Hints:
The complex is a heterodimer. Chain A is of the alpha/beta class. Chain A has helices at residues 63-67, 75-84, 112-122, 132-135, 138-149, 166-180, 195-206, 223-230, 250-262, 285-298, 322-328, 366-378, 384-393, 404-430, 454-462, 467-479, 509-527; strands at residues 96-97, 189-192, 212-218, 234-239, 266-273, 301-305, 338-343, 357-362, 435-436, 445-446, 449-450, 481-482, 484-485, 498-501. Chain B is of the alpha/beta class. Chain B has 18 helices and 15 strands. Chains A and B meet through helix 1, helix 3, helix 4, helix 7 and helix 8 of A and helix 1, helix 3, helix 4, helix 5 and helix 7 of B. Chain A: One of its GO terms (biological process) is L-alanine catabolic process.
Amino acid sequence: xxxxxxxxxxxxxxxxxxxxxxxxxxxxxxxxxxxxxxxxxxxxxxxxxxxxxxxxxxxxxxxxxxxxxxxxxxxxxxxxxxxxxxxxxxxxxxxxxxxxxxxxxxxxxxxxxxxxxxxxxxxxxxxxxxxxxxxxxxxxxxxxxxxxxxxxxxxxxxxxxxxxxxxxxxxxxxxxxxxxxxxxxxxxxxxxxxxxxxxxxxxxxxxxxxxxxxxxxxxxxxxxxxxxxxxxxxxxxxxxxxxxxxxxxxxxxxxxxxxxxxxxxxxxxxxxxxxxxxxxxxxxxxxxxxxxxxxxxxxxxxxxxxxxxxxxxxxxxxxxxxxxxxxxxxxxxxxxxxxxxxxxxxxxxxxxxxxxxxxxxxxxxxxxxxxxxxxxxxxxxxxxxxxxxxxxxxxxxxxxxxxxxxxxxxxxxxxxxxxxxxxxxxxxxxxxxxxxxxxxxxxxxxxxxxxxxxxxxxxxxxxxxxxxxxxxxxxxxxxxxxxxxxxxxxxxxxxxxxxxxxxxxxxxxxxxxxxxxxxxxxxxxxxxx
Amino acid sequence: xxxxxxxxxxxxxxxxxxxxxxxxxxxxxxxxxxxxxxxxxxxxxxxxxxxxxxxxxxxxxxxxxxxxxxxxxxxxxxxxxxxxxxxxxxxxxxxxxxxxxxxxxxxxxxxxxxxxxxxxxxxxxxxxxxxxxxxxxxxxxxxxxxxxxxxxxxxxxxxxxxxxxxxxxxxxxxxxxxxxxxxxxxxxxxxxxxxxxxxxxxxxxxxxxxxxxxxxxxxxxxxxxxxxxxxxxxxxxxxxxxxxxxxxxxxxxxxxxxxxxxxxxxxxxxxxxxxxxxxxxxxxxxxxxxxxxxxxxxxxxxxxxxxxxxxxxxxxxxxxxxxxxxxxxxxxxxxxxxxxxxxxxxxxxxxxxxxxxxxxxxxxxxxxxxxxxxxxxxxxxxxxxxxxxxxxxxxxxxxxxxxxxxxxxxxxxxxxxxxxxxxxxxxxxxxxxxxxxxxxxxxxxxxxxxxxxxxxxxxxxxxxxxxxxxxxxxxxxxxxx
Lengths: 529, 481
């Protein structure tokens, strides 16, 4: 007997206590030499004493590691975790993590059908028992059988093919075709532990040295800046236009491309995040066509981050994959090199903790494809449960399936709620003095712009903090709300923003709005010029 | 047509240098043959469930319940799931911050890391700090992350055993570092010679390489040897003197098939040595749910524990982990279950012990069967598989075979393994994929095929091998009359 999952098992999903786990930033250089009571050997002797400080200290780490940053789980989160260990000393009773697109940590429920199938695949021996029919829907049982039959020996605990289980890739390819109206080849698909490892793989292939540049939108999701830094490349920024709803102008991209070339940088790829993160805009089709033409003409690989493809909240916009757009322009494998990323973490399913995703790789030579496969094989394969989930996301229940109606109700409930929350928070931000907020057409974030008064900027400088981080820190201390300063994503110099997710449950939103409003008013009262 | 941004010529050279034979030429050829309908026995990778080993029941029950928490509210759940699995599922769900579908702490769920620390403490007799334990999507990811911190450029060298599991060589290539080999001595049971180690380091340094780290795989892969405590002490002392961080790959710690040298962790030996070693030697230890008797390769669950790594360095490693957001949560639960097993009295305890013992005892028997089987073959010499999951027989290829290989444009052991594959369907990995002394050839196979299939497999191998040797040996001493 099946029932909806909403409200279920929540008793067991209490948030763990997060302790302050980061040490203070004081230096801790381990001395290799013994205490004053012991003998220090001469460096040239062959006795026990070593000749220098420990092999691995911060000073001797790979500098690329030191260089990269990831604000989404950066400083502001450490401060929040510290606060969390001292409840009761604040005016708020809970920390609200609005820093990260992690829906289920804030109460969003998973899609029942998906979890049924995953549970059955995790423990297939119960499929032989008649009692199982009473616990699971008939179509989830059927789908589990179907999937298990595609796995050699039904062994979900075995390493799979390094691109992912073939049958699941077939399903995903069919899902892509159903979505786009153009065929997809299962051999073009690489299933990965989330979309992020796939992005890293491509950066690894593309970046030979710091003379290789990757065009990234500003503001961007800082996986890109971090990955480029880790692989030793150069980020070539192109600015999205806040005044036109974060519009992407190919003239701006061209300008940045030429400037980079003039500095001796070989620009290799263009990253486009659609729908955008943190900016939430959904590209218009003609915009996408211009981008495709641009990449084709300039010989750039188009890296299309499409993980928010199911998160579109405005009727006037629709998601079109870059694959579809390219093919509808008549461009095939020979015309455009395109890598499209998808994930199980976002959409309406929000299964972040599963680490499931894939990249679809088209328009590359067989030699390049072999190399991509080779790199994938060193890690053997991505986690099987995540692979199964990716196939479910790309081929959910259909009309006529037993679970179809409840699936639709769950999905539409989540998506409509996200749309409402996006609007409520957008309006709330826009009502605050000195804050303007573009509409969140899609994705999971709002990225309001804040005009910080001169006094505040000076106060921030005195604290050796970036102004938007200064604001966010004060907001956190006063309200318990965790946002990410805009400087973590990049912004036009001299402008300040912060990113706030739309993910807290709907019943929490009014309190958030109130707290934000009260804080902002007192902040402005204090720092107004 | 516009220039292509990414073609083979313009690709990162480090990627091109990478080799990973475990899923290389032999595996690809085997897959092709399988598609054509040939029966293939894949012994190229330590992948127990792919060869019929069943998953342990209890962890699967627990994780299934965690996947579908609404089951816990169903009055009939107790008919299909035992009470202790239900209790455990509730326990792990309470440790998460939103169930299996939420990103956890980037280092892994704190409650699970605590269980790992408690396991380490029980195993070694020394306290372990959960803050210094990071869960990862498989031990491989942890190895890559650690080496990424250590390798700044080609001037940085990492000591790697030869033969080695090619994750190390591949990762060092990818990161643009230098692999500094130290040879294990086959005639001394794949033992490690300190002199050889010192020589390797001296040689590297004379080439201007800064040797930064040393890898040990214990029990060994592909070689299976279990290091003695004395050996481990020597290694740790060596690392102290030479200022190396030790990477202790201990993923096979549950796979021990002899009683003379039980598993002892590098951490325990280090702590036993006391100061200055215990306070100074930097150590990163790796473990996984993929091996042992669990064999849950497909979950991608692992951890690493850091010892004597300075706080600021730990922060940087945390930072890198946070870019990947979090390791997959189901695997974290598998890890918790592995380190925090059932106890006598638990409903599922007996079944769990029965299943576990069954697997381990069978592995021990198969290790013996394979070693003996190989040793009965012409021109094949095989050290006993003391631990891990592999057999690494030495194949003494006759000169004519080596010539034939050259004519075919193949490395000699690749040539042999391809012929073996075509003749018997047994898919192995040539020894050149792991490294070996010049002119000495091996292949790696796993001891994982089902016990009842073993005799037939070894017979099939022997038939092929002995015929191969007959074909290529100098006939002078071998009359067929």
